[in-house]
Design a protein that fits this description.
- It contains 4 helices and 6 strands; from the N terminus they run H-H-E-H-E-E-E-E-H-E.
- The protein is α+β, with helices and mostly antiparallel strands.
- The protein has a 6-stranded antiparallel sheet with strand order 2-3-4-5-1-6.
- The protein is globular.
Length: 155
């Protein structure tokens, strides 16, 4: 009887730990401000179209999209080497200049399951496609030189 209770407690604990470590679209929204941020000078529709393209080209599926609030939440399901990932792109108007608007584009990449050590970090590939859709001069503060790792946070 004691063994059965102990096994139930262990099972309950494991279920709570797994669920607590799962990424959700809500978890991405609350993580806003913790991803990699790059800055671009272009009109809104160019930025927005590049963001949508960067999701589709990477084989991610859009789960929630809100152009008025400037975000796209996407995911990649279970694969051979991963239990899946979630990706959020958040776009904010940083400032208006005489040369046009500058937008801060933030990408957050999270594992679907906290213990998923083989999950892909999508930030680099999402930014790579995103930047390929923009004219070169749109880049205000973008990728670091190849010998430096990408920055985290406002740059």
């Amino acid at each position: 009887m004691r063994l059965l209770r102990s096994q139930r407690r262990t099972g309950t604990f494991l279920a709570i730990a797994v669920l607590a470590g799962c990424a959700t679209t809500h978890g991405l929204k609350t993580s806003r401000g913790s991803g990699e941020i790059r800055h671009y000078r272009a009109d809104w529709s160019t930025i927005w179209d590049a963001a949508i393209s960067s999701i589709g080209t990477n084989g991610l599926e859009i789960e929630e999209i809100n152009e008025d609030q400037g975000y796209i939440l996407a995911g990649k399901g279970l694969g051979l080497w991963s239990y899946g990932e979630r990706v959020g792109i958040f776009i904010n108007l940083e400032r208006e200049t005489e040369n046009g608007a500058v937008y801060a584009v933030e990408v957050i990449s999270k594992r679907n399951w906290a213990l998923n050590i083989t999950a892909k970090d999508w930030k680099r590939s999402v930014f790579q496609v995103f930047e390929s859709k923009l004219p070169h001069e749109a880049c205000v503060r973008c990728a670091p030189p190849p010998d430096q790792p990408p920055s985290s946070g406002r740059g």
